[in-house]
Amino acid sequence: MVKDENNDKILDLEEREAKINQLLANRKNRKQSSALQKRQDFETMLETLLPCVGTDPGKMLLAQVIVSLKLQGVLGKNMDEKQINMVHVIQDSLLKDPIKYKEALKITKKLLE
Description:
Helix content: over 70%
Shape: globular
Number of strands: 0
Order of helices and strands: HHHHH
């Protein structure tokens, strides 16, 4: 039996996307989320995305920024040019501040373990 890795990757991405969409739908249905629930949602989304992102620090920070803004409702399903610029400004500020950079990487690396 020959295993088609491309189909496996597509299914894996589709499963990850479905998981994220379900999480976002659940958040919308909740009247209010506790700080703990928001943190769990953030971690769940990152855990879902990080295997696709890899270990490049810039990409990991970008994923964190996008997930944070998505969960706060700042970003919709499709990002326009202003939103893309905003994400990159935030990412750049994290990359330039050594303390914030280390803290953000510590979070993502912990989730990858």
